[in-house]
Each structure stands twice: as structure tokens, then as C-alpha cells.
Amino acid sequence: MARQPKLSDKARTSYGRLERFFRDYTEGLSGAELRRLFEKDAADAYTVLTRDQESAQGSGHRLRSFLIGVRVFFLGLSYKLTPARRMLFVGSLVCALLGLIPATTELSAGSFFLDFSPGWFLLSLGSLVYLLALELVDRVRVRDELEVARKLQRDLLPADTLSVPGYRAAHSYRTANEVGGDYYQFPVLPDGRIALMVGDASGHGMAAGLLMALADATLRTAMDLDPTPAKVAEIVNRALCRTGGRRAFFSLFYALMDPATGELGFVCAGHPYPLLRRADGRVEELGAGGLPLGLRPELEPAVGSARLEVGDLLVLYTDGLAETQSAAGEDFGFDRLHQVVEGGGSAQTLHDALLHAFDRHRGEAPLTDDVTLAVLERLPPLPEPESSGS
To answer: How many CA atoms lie within 13 A of 58 on its CB side?
Structure first.
């Protein structure tokens, strides 16, 4: 009778360990993620694996179309592997087929037979697991390199809020991949003026991140030479045309502001128009259209001007904010963006309201584009201290 509690304690301990393992193993799993695994992810995988293969679909014959699809998928999957791993993959499939064929050997006068089918299946399974492990090692190494690139890219973005008397800013940055192509900065020039910059590199992932880093380096050099909007846009455009291809371009809103007066001159090159929310609730768009930088050498974006008055809010963002879709395929949209901005508030309040509306609209849909949001507010002047009489 005294041993029963000890066995019960062991059982509870084993059950607790199993429960913790299951909880850790399935952490982050959701029903939406499982549905996406067999719906969107499956379709994306087929598209990526077969995009380099010729797929002459059969005309009107379902079986023929199915066989052609299987062939295209097999070749697409195989040719994504290195030659050695390709042979291992084919060998594992051959072993699986051999496991389907009855193959027995008589060992002792017909009294005992040895079935080789399970052996072929085990060999096939072991080969596929080994191949999966090799591919995962490559992915982990790439992920580690991307994490280093992400940290370096994070250093290019502002870490703190704007520290200029009379102004307050709230900002955030989200990436769809490990490395993003969005960019924003608020550097204070030696003469006290503020450069307000937000941009978006074409593409996604590492290619967009490299283009963003190139644009950042060029912008810093351009501001040292001549920080006026027209000149900065000209220098960045020329640099991108020399180093990038046709698909490498960069949308940019660049403004140079005098914090004492709130006067700012700006250039908007292919970027979504920033919104200037006046203290009385009116919303104005800053921009006059134009192409992104890097598309053609003779590009001359239109230059504009505005004045940030006390109580006004300037909202800078990238297209990922307005163009992100919900699970039903509906864009967040510029109309909804305008409606939230009209509500006003402080810089932090409006920033948080926009992100809340954005998250509520997106729901469980994956983020497919980088999202940058920054709100700049001009504050009332501080009251001057009263001078004490003698």
C-alpha cells in the first residue's frame, strides 16, 4: 500500500513533462495558421517550385493535365536541390517504390520468409529526414545572416523620438520579412533645420534592404553637400540610376523644415502623399505626383512647400499601411486612413489610433508589405517665466 503514492507521483511527473513538451512543441499554433498551411502556403509553394519549368497543360483531359502537373512539380522540386541532394531525393523515392513491391526471401526450407518491404520504407524515410535536415541547416544559416542584416538595418532607423523643442513625434516600423525596404529618418542638421524623410525601396526582403541601405548612404551624403529637397532628390536619383536595374527604384518624401517657423519645403517622388492634419480638423495632402527615384536619369520631382502651425499633425507613412489587405481581401485604404487622421489627438494618440485601426482591419491576415508610420506634432510654445519685481 505504501508504494502506490510513489507510482502515482511518477505518473503525474511523466504526464506533466509530456504536457509541457506538447505545449512547447505547439506554441504559436493556431487554426488560421493550419488553414493557411494547406491553402495559401500550398499554392505559393507550387508557384515558386514550378516557375522555372515549362508546363504545357493537357487539352481537355483531366488525367493528362494531372500527370503533367505532377511532372512539373517533381522537376521543379528536384532542380531546387543541389545535384548530390537531388540524387538522394530520387533514391529515397525509389526506395519507397520498392517498399510497395512484395519482396520476400525464403530462408529455411519454406518455413520462414523475410519481407524486405519495411526495410525499403525505413531507408526511404531516413533518406528524406536526412535531406530535410540538410535543407534546414541551410535555412538556419540564411536566417542567422538575415538576422545580422536586420540588426544592421535597424541601426539605420531612428531609435529615439525627435528631440527638438516645440515638437513631438511618435513612430513605428514593421517588416513583412526579416529585412525590409522601408526607410525613415529625422536628422537635425548643423544649422538647426530638420530633415523629414520617409521612403520605400522596390521589392521585398534582402534586395529591398540593400537598396534601402544604398539610399540611406546617398541621402546622408546629399544632405552634407546640399540639403535642399530638389538637390537631394537629384543626387539620390542619379546614384540609383547608376547602380540599380530597371526594377530597383525608391519612392521618397523628403522635407526640410525650419523648426522656429514650421516652414518646410518638400519633394515627393512616387511616394504616398503625407497627410497634414490642421488644428481645425482639415486634412491636406503634401505632394504633386511623380515617378520614384532610380527609374530614369532626367527625373525632376515637383517641389512644394507648407507650414506646420501650432496644433498641426504631419503623418508620414509607406504604402504598406494603406494597401495591406484583410482576410477577405479588402485594402485598408486611403479613405479609412483619412478618417482616422481626421480624429486628431496628440502625436502618440493618433499614431496608436492608426495602428489599432490597421491591426483590427488586418485581423489574422499575414503582413505582406513593410509598414512605416510616423506622426509629427507641433506643440504650443512654453510660457515664459514671469520676472520677479525688485
So the answer is: 13
